[in-house]
Amino acid sequence: MNVSSRFDVTGFGVIVTGGASGLGLAYGEVLAAHGARVTLIDVDAGALSDQTARLQREGLDVRSAVADVTEHVALDRAIDEAAATYGRLDVAFANAGIDPGVGPFGAWAGGARPRVEEGALERYSDERWNRVIDINLNGIFATARAAARHMRPRGFGRIIVTTSLAATMVEGAIGSAYLAAKAGARHFMRAVALELAAYGITVNAIAPGFFVTNIGGGHAHDPDVQAAISKDIPMHRVGRPDDIKALALFLASPASEYITGQEVVIDGGWGLGIAD
Ligand SMILES: NC(=O)c1ccc[n+]([C@@H]2O[C@H](COP(=O)([O-])OP(=O)(O)OC[C@H]3O[C@@H](n4cnc5c(N)ncnc54)[C@H](O)[C@@H]3O)[C@@H](O)[C@H]2O)c1
User: Is residue 258 flagged as an active site residue?
Assistant: First the structure.
């Protein structure tokens, strides 16, 4: 058996939400570098056009669509247009997410719990809570729903959700909006996996640990933050978007056909492990 042919994604139609930066951009890059046709969807029009132009200059088949994952009509349109352009939709990365910073409970993995001002819970606004849930959970629902609409009739598909190691490991996981959304996304992923298993569609999640991206205002680029976090990571280094590419290619390819409903933890140096 030629195993490498199982990783062949040539000609696949792919969409990536949050594709203009960080992990989403890495997903798009690796799929396009292996011959897939990729639509990067993002709310940041400037970064999207810069990255799309860069990848096109490298000869990759990449296009872009500006859409906010909380605006489901616009998101549906962007995904429908991508599928129509390619005549197929094989892979959807439901990846867009924001981290609004420490929530009202100061949840953190390891080390000292950050001090949270007294009354932070009472002052936590509906607007902040709802925005985080709307992007990090409802956006995944809407992306998976649109993808399923295109994949089910063809009997093939790969839906890959970006969750977070934090929702598994961090104290206070039921407390902050980010962690609640990510834990909810994991449950949703499993339910969709069961629903779509009979149609040749796998649904899995990648749960990153700490990766150097622009999330949360870009604090991950700070070498002092990286040094502090690295102490809690067994291999003592933080993750880079390139580290996640092989896993993304595997989950997007025919090679992963037996794996569905799983959350793969990739902890910036820890390597791979299957959660629960
Ligand atoms: N970096 C990490 O350490 C880490 C850890 C765990 C989970 N994650 C998850 O990885 C995913 C990608 O984040 P990242 O680290 O690459 O961050 P990033 O900020 O570098 O990239 C996120 C992208 O999503 C886009 N985006 C934000 N809101 C959007 C919306 N409403 N609609 C469309 N696009 C939107 C942003 O413009 C940005 O381009 C997120 O779901 C995040 O929660 C990241």
Answer: no
